[in-house]
Amino acid sequence: MDRMIYTALSGAKQTLDQQAAVSNNLANTSTPGFRAQVNMFRAVPVVGQASPTRAFTLASTPGADFKAGPLTYTERPLDVALQGNGWLTVQAPDGTEAYTRAGSLQVSADGQLVTSTGLQVMGDGGPIAVPPGAQITIGSDGTITARGPGETSAGLAQVGKLRLVNPPPDSIARGDDGLFRLRPGAQPLQVDANIRVVSGAIEGSNVNPVEAMVDMIANARRFEMQMKMIQGADTNDQRANQLLSNN
Q1: Per-residue pLDDT band at 167 (split at 50, 70, 90)
Q2: Is the pLDDT of residue 123 over 80?
Q3: From CA 198, how far away is CA 80, in angstroms rounded?
Q4: Which domain holds residue 7?
Q5: Percentage of the chain surpassing pLDDT 90?
Q6: In a shared domain, residues 43 and 58
Q7: Gap between the Cα atoms of 172 and 84, Å rounded
């Protein structure tokens, strides 16, 4: 079999992986706080006794596009957006610490501050509990104050403070559940007091739908090119076999 088939096959496989990532990005254009997935590839020369005339395509470390998404002002007190590179800290279903930019917060039936998917929002001292029926206000520094029904402004009480962190982009990675976690070996994150919170707003996805559609078309054409290379190599092999069988 012609070695060109292996070269084209590696390129086709990576193109399919790239297309899957682009499709996932396009499906999350309306997901609050979503960070576009980025797949990186590199060419690796084939090492052998023959001359290095071929290269395989290999995936490098996948990452995410960390640029900020657009803000939508909702005027809802429990909606928060983070300025800069800050992240909200939440408790994942497995009990580990995870990070998200999705700031559509809610109060659960048992009085816990949670995300829209039901994950507990972490404060400086752990999960944040809210008095039942209280009116919640979130300050620009992440301080959460509550006022009971019928109470005046003098009855404001601080119930917690959002645990806001600012990890280096290369220290966190996206999990299968969409949450970001520290990479193995990364240093534990400390609270960053410089992160500012915009109350009454939600950050949207940073995926550009037009760019995603262009990438999908480009990937489809690239995959088609790889398939033509495989078909061409197969045709060459069949003709070579015919010539050999005629001798």
Answers
A1: very high
A2: yes
A3: 6
A4: 3-65+207-246
A5: 46
A6: yes
A7: 16
